[in-house]
Fold each of these.
Amino acid sequence: MPKQAELPVIQRKGGYFLRKSFEGKQREISLGKNSKNAKSRAIRFLATAETSGFEVAMAELRKKPYVKAGANPTFEEMAILYRDFCQQSANPPRPQTITHNLARLKCVMKRGGFKTVGSIDKSTLRRKWFGENTPTPTDNRTFASAISAASGVFKRSALAYYKARSIPLHNPFSGLEIVKPKVSPYVPISAEIREKIWNDCQTELDPPNALIVLMALGIGMRRSEIEAATPEWFSRQQDKVLVHIREEKHFQPKTGESGVVPIAISLYDTLLRLRGESESSYFVASDSEKTGAGRIWERVRVVNRWLKEKGLNNRKPLHALRKECGSLVAKSMGILEASKVLRNTPQVCAIHYAGIAELNTVDVAKTFMPKKDPFSQVAEQLGITPEEVRSKLGIS
């Protein structure tokens, strides 16, 4: 039994971790954030691993049932396996992605009436999902999204990990026919409605709610980014202000990467005026004591209702403001700049904004570098020919 001073415990952002090789693989096991508890957990873990094996030690540490070799996992057991895989992965998914993938798998199994992973029948899944109803394009999109996320639990590297634990599985959704609706380009709102939203939000909404509107429409920020933003995200330069969208304690950027968006000083001054003497550690004050995800959710509800009253009849009004920002940037500065502002790939931006005939896109041809021909890829998703895509983008 190693002494406490000899324990292979390391400390870094997020708490304490036991770093040691088990079964020929280097592992990092989370021990929590309390230093005293971390040491006792490490000692207990090493003792159990030595006598009963690594998997039993992991189950004991997490106080979760041990998944036996050859099992046909239930959802709860599958969640344990998938989280174990993600923890030992050299490039693990984001925590939000892990939670989302498992939530979609749970939804699929519940709606299909499947008790175990092995009982998932892809031939009856679609019928059980939709019942007797004729699916709409939105229904098809929801179904396709759910299957795509649930399939993430069974990607190739994960299946190899399960097999190494003597639990051979396959992707139950492999080969499932999914009707993916065509993606339509974003249709910009009228200048009149846009100006009305911009001006009226400052007089008709509470300052924190007006901030949400301006940060989406003026900066192109996602709801989660507005929610996590702190005053430190904004740095004033000589002729502009830079918004540094970066990882925080309760937030990780959607793509896992930070981004920098330049905005006009006049917009920043307006934001500061609306923020006033707020004592909140966040840029946008919450209307509750909650921190992390969902902190400003009630404010977002109010904003969405207000935007619909102003004539913005999109399914997600606040997110439509972000797309409107991208549309304005794409029209004036091109797809490449729009992709930088929105922190999306140029391909995604082209799909959303290719319907704007007057786009200035001289850099698009040099920017697109996917494995598949970019114009064929965009054309396929828009339901038009590659030649029409080139024409809309002004590229011969």
Amino acid sequence: MSICFAFDNEHSQDGAGAQVFRIIGVFCLARHYKIGFVNRDILTLDSNPGDNMDSHQKELELIADLGKFLNLDSYSCKLHHEEKVLPDHLFFRLQIFFLMWLRFRQLLNLVKGTHEVYTVQNPYKLTLKKPNVYKYFRDTRPLQNNKKLHDKFDVQLHIRRAYVSNSRFQNRFSPTEWYREILSPITTLLKANHIPYEITVHTDVSHPNADWKPSFSTATSDYFKNNDVKFNEDSTISLGYEDFSETLGDLGNINVVTGISVLEAWEMMQHADLLIIGKSTFSFVPGLLNQRGTIISPVGFLEGPRTWTFLNEPPKMTTMLVKTILDKWTGSSNK
């Protein structure tokens, strides 16, 4: 290809979910604009509570596993390219100008017989108004058949509480009551129809009074401090905690999961019949891959595909919405 996009792995300093999300975004934009894609592996990862990435060896192993999960090398252009950085022009926010620039660069390279690769650190400015481009990544996965995977209605939630609260990272906080108000009418209908169900809560702290010694870049450290996250004298952070078996226990059949690998959690969430994501790329990624279930996302974080359901606080759970969620599951073919 005369022009390609690539993930700017040399300057990306973030956790596993954020970097995988960016790689997916760059890949999908390349497919959408019918240009090439150059695959670039993640070079380094910031740690997060509960990810068990407490050594450099585990970091390297996770990076390798994430590369296998993405599995994009076969889509990578192998030509020699002149390296450039995608300009961050204001006029790029208008698609017509971005497309004009893109086609001009393509034509110029064809005339000159050259090839350019533009590195993109964060593609979200370009995917923001085109959230359905994420389908291109899902299209790289084997299609799931229409047969129900579970005898029970499988609900998966992602709730962050380690350093996200009403006072810390407020823009990433979704109150427990938001999840409850979504689930309460659903579980009521499930019980009324004698449909077995299980609710799995993915969270980032397994016990109260936990301290976490992060391993991340200076930029991320500054980001934490700017969001009122206090570091202890020993460079640890005192983590928040919520016992969801208590605070959501009245909904029934609650299973709290923490401390498993990123990929194990993603495997569980991408097969959920109902996935309620948090304000985090950690659950956004498996939401993109979930081909059968209903995805509910909080309003005001990342703009996901139009097929998702976006709910404010408090959520408006209409009778029609609850019925649609369950009909999607009961309507799956058992053939």
Amino acid sequence: MDPACKLESAIKRSPTNTGPGLDDIGYSFVRYWWKEKPDCLRQLVDYGLTNNIPYSHSAEVILIPKADKPRYDIVKSWRMIDLLPTIAKVVEEIVLIRIAGHVVLGETQFGSRRKRGVHV
């Protein structure tokens, strides 16, 4: 699969029910950008992948207190949400697509497989 198809596939796989990332860019904007100027977005992603842009490695962690915990000085009393740049999440999906093309997961492997999650 050529890089343009991987980028398009990664954008199509992106969720529709999430807020903007750390960069304040939402997936809806990325989809619009891809529809209007695919070459521009492709150049940005290619530049980021080849030049190791530092902003793509940053994240903001938000701590949310869990309900009904007796003490909030214990780590288990908090839930963490990592806010990543949206373009970095699209690039993550491209890397996942590339790896999935080379790794064969057996039928006994359920982790990291689409529609094969295990619910307890």
Amino acid sequence: MSILVTFREVLANILDMPTTAWIYLPKDKNWSLNSNVAVLESEEIPPDMEDAPDAGVPEFAKKHGLIQAVPVTALQDIVGNARMQKGGSTDEDLFKAFLFYYNHDAFINLTRQ
């Protein structure tokens, strides 16, 4: 079932999320730990439609103004990397690590933060 939860809830349960799903966040990209998030499977699309802007985006995401942000596996890696660098990482640390990854396609160095 498709539901909206907060980013904080996704972080708390990321290791239990399906590894074939994606994290969908609001289009405005004004994200926070309280942003609405959906964890959804992307829809299969024919090769000739792959370049369409919302190709594979589930109807639930479109209805709620969400965009595909990162695969669940990427967020699992981001969280794992942050926790490896800084034991006892807070939700704020993990969110900061996510934003850094999203904007730079690289893991954050929490030891320099």
